[in-house]
Amino acid sequence: MEHLFQLKQRKTNIRTEIAAGLTTYCSIIYIVSVLITMLSLTGMKDTAVFSSVLVSSGIGCIIM
Fold this sequence. Notes:
Structural class: mainly alpha
Shape: elongated
Mean pLDDT: 89
Oligomer: single chain
Largest sheet: none
Helix content: over 70%
Order of helices and strands: HHH
Low-confidence stretches: none
Strand content: under 5%
Distance between the termini: 23 Å
């Protein structure tokens, strides 16, 4: 892993990177679920809201 990602050069380790990844994943899941709930309360169809939020989140991730 060290050779592939050059962790020492970047002053990090596997544990820190895994914790950062899990934190980011949990944050995204929370935001997506809250956004779906909020938009569903406006009267939009649940399936349309669900798919549009997931597609837009995927596009945002690809752009990043």
